[in-house]
Design a protein that fits this description.
By secondary structure, this protein is of the alpha+beta class. The protein is built from 22 helices and 10 strands. The strands form 3 sheets. Strands 2-5-1-6 form a 4-stranded antiparallel sheet, sandwiched between helices. Strands 8-9-7-10 form a 4-stranded antiparallel sheet, sandwiched between helices. Strands 3-4 form a two-stranded antiparallel sheet.
Amino acid sequence: MQSNIAKNMPARVKLDKIKEIFGGTEFIIISLTADDVLNLSTLKKVKKLEENLKELKQIKKVKSPFSMHSITGKNNNLIIDDLIKKIPETTSKKQQLRQKIKNNNLVYGNLIAKDFKAVAVVGYLQKDSDDQLLLKKLNKIIDKSSEDERIYLAGMPVIRAKIASNIIYDIKRFMPSGLLIVLVFLYLCFKQLRGIILPFIVAVMSIIVSIGLASLLNWKIHLITVILPVALMAITNDYGIHIIAYYQEENYQQRSINEVELSRLVVRNLSRPIIATGITTIIGLLCLLAHIIVPAQQLGVLAAVGIGFALLASILFMPAVLSLLSKPKPVKITEKNNNSRSMEKMLFGISDFVTSYPKKIITAFLLVIILVSSGICLLKVDTNPINYFSRNSQIVKSNNIINKYFGGTSTISIVAKGDIEDPAVMKKIAKLEERLKEYKKVDQVTAISNVMRNINLELHNKNEKFARVPTTRNAISQYFLLYSMSEESTELVDFERRHALIRARIKTNSTTEINKIVDSINKNIDNSNQSSFVFIGGIGDLLAELVDSVVKGQVFSLTLSVISVALIVIYLFSSLTAGVIAILPLTLAIVTLFGLMGYFGIELNMITALLSSIMIGVGVDYTIHFLWRYRKEKKNRDSKAAVKKTLMTTGRGIIFNALSVIVGFVILLGSNFLPVKFFGFLVIISISGCLIGSLILLPAVCIIFEPEFLESSIADS
């Protein structure tokens, strides 16, 4: 996961530093559960799993109860021996092994559960190992096991491999079904072959351009970028839809002009609002560059390029093709004949409702905003990738087993720097170790101070008086010399003994809770230049920082998007008021979006955080098209008549535009990932909010307040 995060992110810098000092690497965990893992059959299974893992080229080191050592004292001598020399076959020998395990803190609670109902085998990966190939081989190893024990597979490489396979599965489904949905939708909208083929061709070309650019830049398709083709299919139709809708309208009204003149008329009247809406969408997408996740930044760039291509193709390619085709049979569009089609009937009803009750509409919208906004207080932030999967998935069940029996998969690591053999430094490490154990969600704490304490106790014949870290430098040096004989000696302290690692396992999947623990630890330790503790790092720290980064990035991108969109509208209409009015439907959509997320318990995460930039860039399109046409109609009509005319004409294109986005994103509801499903649902909600705001709230505002910038005339040629 950290490879997808900007290299200069503090948490990633610290994590990389820990790996550099202590040689940390990624790992997978195979856990077995049984009534008693010290049974003969279970231990044989563990031994076999260890041997099978060692044979894999992707695994460089395996840690299991059979690879660990036992440290005991006898006659003031320290004996370091294999924890399990031979699998016990008698009850008495099994009890002896049980006691040895309880005396070994590196095994008890870490590799064997404290109730002896679970055991873990950990495989440390070679650098740049193939996650997919590894998962395939691991599944084969597990499948060979008997059914006496339940076996679970966990670890970040496993999560990545599962995400990758699900991405491929999603793309295979999304692409063909998405293209089919677009074709059917365009047919229902226009009932003309050119109205189907031309926007469809533009969408397909845009996808090809974006995917081709990703290939040229050597950018991989990640969980986040799987949204790209779906977003382009849904959004790139918008400009073509307005072109075709206006083309049909003018074809009905301007029967005497030829194909070339008709295409020119469409371009003259729509080029400016379409360019403006395209630019707002592009800016909204480019605001994703503020996202902390690299694939999200890449998504913003690729989608912006695709939208830019679609924009140019819609105002250049489509009119050019239309000018070469013979004029089709006119499609009848009029507010007088409200029985002609269901769309016209609906638009007539909306226009009649808006012009009859503008004050009540504004009041109702204010009440809805106040009511829904209270849900924002319930909004939660979570960035743990394990939450991408449903609770019933095998990968979540495996993760829960690790949380239950082995202290959790998320770790927080505190690095101590200085002379680790100094008794004062060792005492500080021991004090921090004990303090960490007091946290409710911290189940296992591993530190060199605990090793020193155990050695001290063993060398003094288990006299409880010596159940503490040594008080002299000479004793600590001697203990280090003895401890260096074991393979675990470099896991908690570096070779020069200038750095020590205190590692705490957290038994929760909630990054909100992890964030609280990290903040609390930061407050309780002095990590200044004079302190022995340099910094807090690890996966837990990374997830915690992501929470803050997602929130800050969301606020920043949201603010930047709104300001950028407002400035473009201000420039387009040469009015500050225009910018304020343009963000009214967006405000409604934003409040509705985050309020419903709070009420429905949908978390703000690395995927749902993408939504605001996309929503603002796309949602403002409806406002721009409405205001542009309204100002034209206001030239010769009063406010109510201008609203009716605008809704009965441009309203048709606006509805088709919004439905294109909604229908396109509906396909995401079938994704294998919960955040992607939620993303699709939230797009539907937010775009619906923008649509309702543009067709109902915005016209009511125009009628009541009659903004001056909408009174000026527009050149029609």
